[in-house]
Design a protein that fits this description.
384 residues, alpha+beta, Peroxisomal Thiolase, Chain A, domain 1, nine-stranded mixed sheet, three-stranded mixed sheet, 11 helices, 27% strand, globular, binds coenzyme A
Length: 384
Amino acid sequence: MSLRLGIHDLSLATTSFVVQLDDLAAYAGVDPDKYRLGLGQEQMSVPGADEDIVTMAARAAAPILERHGVDGIRTLYVATESGVDQSKSAAVFVHSLLGLPSSCRAVELKQACYSGTAALQAALGQIARSPEDRVLVISADIARYALDSAAEVTQGAAAVAMLVSADPALVELESATGIYTAEVDDFWRPNDSSTALVDGKLSVDAYIDAYLGAWDDYRAHGGVPIEQIDRFCHHQPFTRMAAKAQRALAEHVGAEIDEARHLGSTRYNRRIGNSYTASLYAGLASLLDGDDDLTGARIGLYSYGSGSIGEFLAGRVVPGYRDHGRAAATLAALDTRTTLSIEQYRALHAGAAIGSVQDVTIAPVSSGPFHFTGVTGRARHYRR
Ligand code: COA
C-alpha cells in the first residue's frame, strides 16, 4: 500500500498590531473601495518593534508542539523572504525558542513568496524515505514596501506552521505537481534594502504566466483536469489576485469561472495582507476553517514567488479534519490585534530597519509569547 503523506496540523500566527485600510485610504486621499473592492483588502498586520519573522514563526508553531510533542521531528524548515541574518538561519533561532531537540536540523529557505512550497516538497521527500519522521515547515514573512508607494497597501505579516507527516489528519497531498521557473525582475529585495522593490503590473503578469505554465506542467505530469478540483487556493499578494488568476486559468482551459471555488480561501488574507511565503497557507487555513464541509474535497494549491517560480499541486481533505480546526484561535489572533493610527504605523515603519552596528535593547510591546529583545555585539537576541 502506498504511503499517505501530507499536512497533519496547521497553525497561523500574525502580529500584535494592525492598520485599518480605510484609515490608510483616508490618509492617502484614495477611495476606500479601491482597497476593499479593487484589491480585496481590509486590514494589514504590522509588526511591533519586538516582533519579526522569528517571533511569528515560533508563535505559529508553539500550539502544534503543544498538541503533538516533538518526538520524530528531525527537521525544521523556515521559509522566508524576510531573513534576519545573511548567514545564520532564522530556523536556528526558532529551534531555540521552541525548545526543539538538538537532533533536529534547522534550515532557512528563500525564493521570494514561493519557498514554503519548496520546504513542503522537501519534507514530503524526507518522510517518503523515513515515514516515522515528522517535519515542521514554517512559512513566515513581513511584507514591507516603501511608504507612499503603490505597493504600500499590499503589506502585511503572518506565519503558518505545518506539521508534515505520514497519515496526515488534515490534507493528503497528491504526488502530481506542476512547476514553472522563469527569470523576471518583477519583485526583489537587494541586500542593502529593508523594503522590497516591485514592478506591480509586471508582477501580476508574471504571476499569471507562471500559473498557466505550472498548470500545463501539472497536467503533463498526471494532474487531474480542472473539473476535478473542488476548491482553489492561491498565493494572495492581495485577495483580488486570486480572482484574476482563476479567471485566467478558466480562459486558458476553456472552463466556466466559478468564484465559489476560491473565495473561501481569502477570508484571513483580507485581514492580514500579503504575508509572502505564508500567504498561500494562510489561504489554506482560511479554507479549512470555513463553514463548508470539505471532507474528501480536492484542493488545488498555487504557489508563486516573484523572480520567478510557480508551482501547482493538489491535496484531498482528510475525513475528520474538522476535529483539528483552529478557527477560534486564528480569529482571536486577528480580532485582538491593536489598531495603529496612521501616524503610529508610519513611525514604526520608518524605524523598522535597526541594523546591527549599535547595541540596542527592545522593550516588549507585543502580546505574543516570543519577543525580539535587541542586538548586542551585532548578534540578535530573543526570549520566550
Ligand atoms: N473602486 C473599486 N475598484 C477600484 C477603485 C475604486 N474606487 N479604484 C481602483 N480600483 C481597482 C482598479 O480598477 C484595479 O482593478 P483591476 O486590477 O481589476 O483593473 C484595482 O483596483 C487596482 O488598481 P490599480 O490602479 O491597478 O492599483 P495600483 O496601480 O495602485 O497598484 C498593485 C496595485 C497591486 C499593482 C500594487 O499595490 C503593487 O504593486 N503591489 C505589490 C505587488 C503585488 O502585490 N504584486 C502581485 C503579484 S505577486
